[in-house]
Design a protein that fits this description.
The structure holds two protein chains of two kinds. By secondary structure, chain A is of the alpha+beta class. Chain A has 13 helices and eleven strands. In chain A, the strands form two sheets. Chain A has a six-stranded mixed barrel. In chain A, a hairpin with a 2-residue loop joins strand 6 and strand 7. In chain A, helix 11 packs antiparallel against helix 12. The longest helix of chain A has 38 residues. The two termini of chain A are 27 Å apart. Chain B is of the alpha/beta class. Chain B contains six helices and ten strands, in the order βββαββαβαααβαβββ. In chain B, the strands form two sheets. Chain B has a six-stranded mixed beta sheet with strand order 6-7-8-3-9-10, sandwiched between helices. A four-stranded antiparallel beta sheet of chain B has the order 2-1-4-5, covered by helices on one side. In chain B, helix 3 packs parallel to helix 5. The mean pLDDT of chain B is 89. The chains are: A alpha+beta, B alpha/beta. At the A-B interface, helix 1 and helix 10 of A face helix 1 and helix 2 of B.
Chain lengths: 386, 227
């Protein structure tokens, strides 16, 4: 087998331009796969960014027949949250208001949707950098905190606030002051975020019914069993609400984006296409190699080389192409991840998990092309050739 | 000493039904060590079929064919491979691997020995085989830089380097001019003689008939000795 792999390498090396074309094809599909996985992963991390930073142990949302993302969830009566305090394990209960407002940029006068989170400033149920120190600030009438990692389309808000203090903007046509900054980052549902008090939230959304909330956040007593408490709260509350642990709440957001929107499908399709492009390119190269050398391969068979040896050459060539394409593809993806992260604020991380997954996919892709090209080897029959 | 090739009542047909055509009809031949035998005959007379049967490249249909000590009628792929490794093949085209040097091409036949040689030994044996065909100065040349005659001589070195029990050649001179063709056949004979290995050449090149020990003529599937 070592000889077969050696031959495969010599054969590929013999025509550097074809080899480069093959490598370029593999690089292309490797980069495509990395980007798709990266985006998809970032989407999931971002999409559940709020869920991941809520300070609580159990979460109450409106029960719905299908998974729905946080931004699109229906509300439920605020009483339910307070009712949950009747369960002995529950220590604290607070609410989160969620709405999408129109932000009018003071620089361009253009409007853009922005996600607004309303919390009780006495509790401060969001554990994000910048929130705790500004809890008193948002008690002020018409004041909000701005997400410093929002997309830059909102204008140089963070820089201005840092340099010159609070600025006044129009949100839902209401003059509002940005008093401070926190850090969260945009997601696929929203480009930017604001945090304010529950009272200010209701000022920004005058038609919002104050007794309807989006999420109830329950804190448990130290040492309380989360599962037991979850079951107890669920038993106590009417079936119009669902009680979830944080993992379930995060997973529901994942599943929504993955399954209920076309986004999951789009990423999966793009992965499949990247994979197929790789197969086609590598197959072309291998098929052409075999066709060019058909007479020589038939001669090798006449000399007593086995069919297995011939398969070894093709397998070797496909694995070499895969490896030679993967390495630069990985390096290029690393660069693109950085570029994407800095321009979109998406948490694009290229770790061992993704590297291993794409490496396996690349090798599989090359082996599939190889086994398709092997059919061509049947034509290398010395009895028919001479 | 047992013959290198012994064919008894060998028949071979192509196609079925009405289109069935007998290409070899009751062929009986015996090739003894050291002999250079030419097989001639018009196109389609079955010369190449006979050669591919002897080379274990094609399955025997009817009759007995013993090559290099193995019966090929009903031979398994393993037996076929074993026989192929004991035979040296020279084709009309040299069919050298273009991405290997002359020496590496010759080493391809040395990789398959029943008792494997160390790399260094294969390296030296390939050089010796190339020197024997007058290519000692071209060991590291790629086929593309060699002339047609030189390429065919590399192919001959490849067919002989592993000391085969039999050399088969299918129109080895067809692509060469008279002088080169003659030289090539001469080389095959010289090397084979020193190794005591018989050679079977299928040809209708009249220019090389003078160096044969025996000439067999196939006509319409029947074989006969011509003297």
């Amino acid at each position: 087998m070592a000889i077969a792999f050696q031959l495969a390498w010599r054969q590929l090396r013999h025509e550097p331009r074809k080899l480069l074309a093959g490598i370029a094809g593999v690089v292309f599909s490797v980069v495509l796969m990395f980007m798709q996985i990266g985006f998809r992963d970032a989407l999931f991390v971002c999409a559940a960014g709020i869920q991941s930073h809520l300070a609580g142990d159990l979460f109450i949302i409106r029960r719905q027949s299908d998974n729905v993302g946080l931004v699109f969830m229906s509300q439920f009566p605020r009483r339910r949250v307070q009712q949950a305090l009747a369960v002995p394990e529950v220590q604290s209960a607070t609410e989160l208001y969620v709405g999408v407002a129109q932000w009018k940029s003071p620089w361009t006068a253009r409007t853009r949707g922005i996600l607004v989170l309303g919390i009780d400033p006495a509790v401060g149920a969001l554990e994000l950098p910048g929130v705790r120190e500004h809890l008193d600030t948002i008690r002020l009438k018409d004041s909000v905190l701005f997400d410093g990692r929002s997309r830059r389309e909102y204008g140089p808000v963070a820089a201005t606030v840092k340099a010159h203090g609070p600025i006044t903007v129009e949100i839902n046509s209401r003059r509002t002051k940005v008093e401070g900054l926190f850090q969260l980052g945009g997601s696929f549902a929203t480009d930017g975020n604001l945090i304010t008090s529950d009272l200010n939230f209701l000022r920004l959304f005058p038609s919002h019914n104050a007794s309807q909330v989006s999420v109830g956040i329950l804190g448990l007593k130290p040492g309380a069993d989360r599962r037991v408490a979850q079951a107890a709260v669920a038993r106590l509350l009417p079936p119009d609400v669902a009680v979830m642990t944080r993992d379930e709440f995060v997973k529901q957001e994942h599943d929504y984006w993955d399954q209920a929107t076309p986004i999951g499908f789009i990423f999966n399709t793009a992965m499949v296409i990247a994979f197929l492009v790789g197969i086609v390119v590598v197959h072309q190269i291998l098929y052409a190699e075999i066709s060019t050398h058909l007479a020589q391969y038939a001669t090798l068979k006449a000399m007593g080389y086995t069919q297995r040896f011939m398969l070894g050459i093709v397998t070797g060539a496909s694995l070499i192409l895969g490896l030679l394409g993967f390495v630069p593809g990985w390096a290029a993806s690393l660069g693109l991840y950085h570029l994407t992260a800095s321009s979109t604020g998406l948490p694009m991380t290229l770790g061992v998990g993704k590297t291993t997954l794409v490496l396996l996919l690349t090798m599989t892709m090359c082996l599939v092309s190889g086994s398709l090209a092997m059919r061509r080897l049947r034509a290398a029959n010395p009895a028919d050739m001479f | 000493m047992e013959p290198a090739v012994l064919a008894t009542n060998l028949f071979h047909t192509y196609g079925d039904g009405l289109r069935r055509k007998t290409i070899l009809h009751d062929v009986n031949i015996e090739v003894r060590p050291g002999e250079l035998t030419l097989i001639t005959g018009p196109s389609g007379s079955g010369k190449t079929t006979l050669l591919t049967l002897i080379g274990a490249l094609r399955a025997v249909q009817e009759g007995s064919l013993c090559v290099a000590g193995e019966e090929l009628n009903g031979a398994t792929p393993e037996v076929q491979t074993r026989v192929r490794r004991r035979v040296g093949y020279v084709f009309q085209a040299s069919n050298l691997l273009p991405f290997l040097t002359a020496r590496e091409n010759v080493m391809m036949s040395l990789n398959l020995l029943a008792e494997p040689l160390p790399t260094k030994e294969r390296y030296n044996r390939a050089a010796e085989a190339l020197a024997a065909v007058g290519l000692a100065d071209h060991l590291d040349d790629y086929p593309a830089t060699l002339s047609g005659g030189e390429r065919q001589r590399v192919a001959i070195a490849r067919a002989l380097a592993h000391r085969p029990r039999l050399v088969l050649a299918d129109e080895p001179t067809a692509a060469l001019d008279k002088q080169n063709g003659h030289e090539c056949v001469q080389l095959m004979r010289n090397v084979a003689r020193t190794q005591g290995c018989p050679i079977l050449i299928v040809t209708h090149d009249p220019r090389i008939q003078d160096i044969a020990d025996r000439i067999l003529r196939i006509d319409d599937g029947h074989i006969q000795e011509s003297t």
